[in-house]
Write a structure and sequence with these properties.
alpha/beta; Aspartate Aminotransferase, domain 1; 38% helix; 7-stranded mixed β-sheet
């Protein structure tokens, strides 16, 4: 049955009470601040709620639905694999896992891959690999990993500690030791931190950064900053880890965010867009730092046939349909439109920034208007957007987005800004 046919079929309607605080929230832990809509189906860059209302999806599961919703290639891959073999243990060779690893290695600077289920798990694997490398190859007994202020690396205990945002750490102490924070895009802070940590006998084993800070406000890395970090790591034997969970898999207009910086990491992580919405994560590394051996690390579900088949489909479709070109073109269109809005509303908009189809619009700090206000206005206009902090509006549509859909999103933002400007 085609996706178009599915959309015409009567949907199974859940009781309305399940979407009220007395219903849904009675059964599901309230760990999310949810907007008051309930989505039940999607096609391409569009989704529909339980009332039948259509929305243009510029959230894409927060930079996750690479090919949008119900893409025919993904539907075929899911159907074929679930009818063939969906899960076995990593005690055995899984051919499609090997195929996916080969594609990722062939399209990146990495030599090997480890598969898991999420970005947080991929970053955990990177942290463990860096620590093991530090002990065994660098003879460091108390290794430290430098991360950035305003970073985001996940929700496990180790990754919220790596995350340089206290709001995510509140209430979860004692945190995992072995991390040190520095301002992003500030090379002198890195140099001073390494010097001081060495004096304190907390030698630096790795520097872990996002090529572009997503949750930290859509802040791209400076080329000179990252190139100097690469030099420092080479000089001192420090591993460079890049968190590509949000910016990788073509979202920046290149396969990987680091390609925008003119450097190669020793280790990098991927998730979100890798599976196009099916949970899968990957930690990839160069051979010189692959110190894992049987028993060092593992994942029950990681790299199972089902997840790998879908991820391989996403990778091959990304390449076959030349979606990087679309990301570059639609990203340029989106930034140009947002810059026009910034020129029209200078009292409301401070800056537009980003790469490809991860773009942030920052509001002026001295106004009451927040990114959540714009999101709510856009929802009313039938467009889904997502904040990246209280003052940054994030645009992360599927990589298949069309020019007309970009124009529609820009119109929704313009309407929201115009309504605020007259107040």
């Amino acid at each position: 049955m085609s996706p178009e046919t599915l959309l015409k079929e009567p949907s199974v309607q859940a009781e309305a009470s399940l979407f009220s605080s007395e219903g849904f929230d009675s059964y599901v832990m309230t760990t999310y601040g949810r907007f008051a809509i309930a989505l039940e189906r999607g096609l391409g860059c569009r989704v529909w709620d339980t009332e039948g209302r259509e929305y243009l999806d510029f959230v894409a599961g927060i930079a996750t639905c690479t090919l949008g919703h119900a893409h025919p290639a993904m539907v075929a891959a899911v159907t074929q694999q679930i009818q063939t073999l969906h899960h076995v243990s990593n005690l055995y060779y899984i051919p499609v896992q090997g195929e996916l690893a080969k594609w990722l290695v062939d399209h990146s600077c990495a030599d090997r891959a480890f598969f898991c289920n999420s970005g947080a798990e991929a970053n955990e694997a990177a942290i463990k690999l860096a620590r093991k490398y530090a002990h065994e190859q660098l003879n460091i007994s108390n290794p430290t990993i430098i991360t950035a202020v305003a970073s985001f690396h996940g929700r496990t205990l180790a990754t919220i500690t790596a995350t340089g945002q206290p709001k995510y750490q509140k209430g979860f102490s004692p945190l995992v030791p072995g991390f040190h924070y520095v301002p992003y895009n500030d090379i002198s802070a890195i140099e001073l931190a390494i010097e001081q940590l060495d004096k304190d006998e907390r030698q630096v084993a790795a520097i872990m950064l996002e090529a572009l800070q997503g949750e930290g406000g859509v802040r791209p890395g400076d080329i000179a900053y990252f190139q100097r970090i690469r030099e420092i790591c080479d000089e001192k034997g420090i591993l460079l880890i890049l968190d590509e969970v949000q910016v990788g898999m073509g979202r920046s207009g290149k396969y990987w965010g680091y390609e925008n910086l003119g450097i190669e990491p020793d280790i990098f992580t991927s998730a979100k867009g890798l599976g196009g919405g099916i949970p899968i994560g990957a930690m990839l590394c160069k051979s010189h730092c692959d110190v894992f051996e049987p028993g060092s690390h593992a994942s029950t579900f990681g790299g199972n046939p089902f997840a790998c088949a879908v991820a391989l489909c996403v990778c091959q479709t990304l390449e076959r349909e030349n979606l990087l070109e679309n990301v570059q073109q639609r990203g340029a269109q989106l930034k140009a439109g947002l810059n026009q809005l910034a020129a029209a509303y200078p009292n409301l908009i401070a800056e537009v920034r980003g790469w490809g189809l991860i773009v942030g619009l920052e509001l002026q700090a001295d106004i009451a208007l927040t990114s959540a206000d714009i999101v709510k206005s856009a929802i009313a206009a039938g467009v889904l957007l997502v904040p990246a902090g209280p003052k940054v509006l994030r645009f992360v549509p599927p990589l298949i987005v069309s020019a007309a859909e970009v124009d529609r999103a820009l119109l929704a933002v313009e309407e929201a800004l115009r309504s605020q400007a007259v107040h």
